[in-house]
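hey so u asked for the seq, here:
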Amino acid sequence: MSLTLSAEQAGRIEPLVAVLPVGVPAIETVGLRKAYRGSVVLHDLSLSVAPGEVFGFLGPNGAGKTTTVKILMGLVRPTAGTASIFGLPAGDREARRRVGYLPENFRFHDWLTGAGLLDFHGRLAGLSAEERRSRIPDAIARVGLAGRGDERIRTYSKGMTQRIGLAQAIFHRPDLVLLDEPTSALDPVGRREVRDLIHSLRDDGITVVLNSHLLSEVELVCDRVAIIDHGRVVRSGPLADLLGATTTIRVTVDRVDCELRTALNRYADVLAVEDATVTLGVSDVEVAPLIADAVVRGGYQLYGLAPVHRSLEDVFMDLVEGGEE
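ran it, structure tokens below
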């Protein structure tokens, strides 16, 4: 099964995006707060998601991600603050019409066929019978289920069920798609196909908000990221800025002494020393040959020198303390 569209299928898909007001964020929350029986889940949460970007919304269990999404969908009222979708109050009927949503723990009527499920959701979205008939084959093909739409969902594998869930999220051609763990049931091939689908949605001008515990997947698709912990945004911005320009270099030698530290400090900051390995903070890996030369000229045996780029997982673990949903 593939999520890749043929040229013929791509040509049949109509533009997905309505004309949107210029400069209006796809999502905006200001001072969002939510308390349940004295327990505060969200603390002054403020964020903005631009139209047409892929935005990663990350945090440990219990950080407030699910509560935030429920507020955006109009399922939960905030205790304080505001939330809007394309300038409309979250929960407003028109705002909800412009959103497609795939929750992490979804449950579908398994006696329906895949096509029947899309027809049902299309009716809920107010699509005409003709619109539903014309869109179902393309939506099913787009998520890699071509030829399987007439089979009952109870016969689907977990991965196929995940795919039909993606299809229902995009079926009514929303301007904003909220995806909660969209690749959790998929194998590596399926995860790559979902990444391709997300890229195609962005190419169509669709805003995608992605929540995933597979941070390597987030790195591959997101333009910007917000990390929340205990109901607060602890870091947000473009992915490149979040990871930072600074990288580290690990140098392994025969011995580490004060003279070596002094020599290395001319080119980098000594961040850590573990046995005979020194971790250096540098602003540019181009300094690596100079470091190697300084080690050898100082009379040390150089056993290894390797740049280590910080990953999104590294940043995430530095910022959050964890918790329970």
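The first strand starts at residue 27 and ends at 36. Confidence is low (pLDDT under 50) at residues 4-18.
lmk if thats what u needed
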